[in-house]
Amino acid sequence: MTATVLSFLNFKGGVGKTSATALVSYNLAKMGKKCLVIDFDPQANITALFLKTKSQNKDNVATIESSLMTALNKKESLDDITIEIGENLYLVPNAVDFSMYGRFLERNFIDEEQRISYFKTQVDPLRDKYDFIFIDVPPTISLPNDTAFYACDQIIVVLQTQERSLQGAEVLIEYLQDSIVDQYGSTVQILGILPFLSKRSASVDKEILDAAAEEFGDENVFKSQIMQMERVKRMDMTGITDHPHDSWDIRTHKAFHKVAAEIIERLGE
């Protein structure tokens, strides 16, 4: 077992990348793949979502004894602060103090390459314990995020079918190539472009998907597509629900299961 390290990425907020990280990892876990999610955002949205998910089972008390920044400051292994959320699904939690991570890097490493490669040294020892490691990053260009990108093997670009989204995807891919691969020798690759479709503008969706296929190559656009769903927004409040007789839960997980299966397929290729 050697984990693939991935991140869903977009420099625009609110496009669904945290939901994708949570629900794809959840469905990979249901498929028998052992998954770790590292919350890399000081807003800790995926930490809150997963703790609510864990707390749905009254036998599971969801508590955080240590967060990511505390572990880094104390030179603890990320394995020491990992929380089991459910079968095959684990979390490295975060908290607001992670906003100090940039200063931590500047204080501890004079050399820029050491700063960029630091987080990879924390992630790599975990690879033999998981099939997938997801890093959920905030939608910003920053030194802290660069350390997460450098730790990744694959990036999945979330393409929201709205104006300027294609341009944003182009800028993102160019940034990764110039600032992470060319400058620091990272081997990170783009696994594909994952479309997040709007509910009401089917014609706009088609136009943008056609343009994406032309720009990036049809083979690089995921065949699986995610429609914006109210149930996903509800899960932010309730935790991930998976009721076998709830048609909305079934529909939601079916969509993300397809994405999970396509990730496995693309990695195999």
UniProtKB/TrEMBL annotation:
PANTHER family: COBYRINIC ACID AC-DIAMIDE SYNTHASE, P-LOOP CONTAINING NUCLEOSIDE TRIPHOSPHATE HYDROLASE. Gene3D superfamilies: P-loop containing nucleotide triphosphate hydrolases. This is Chromosome partitioning ATPase. CDD domains: ParAB_family (cd02042). It holds the Pfam family AAA_31. Residues 4-178 form the AAA domain.
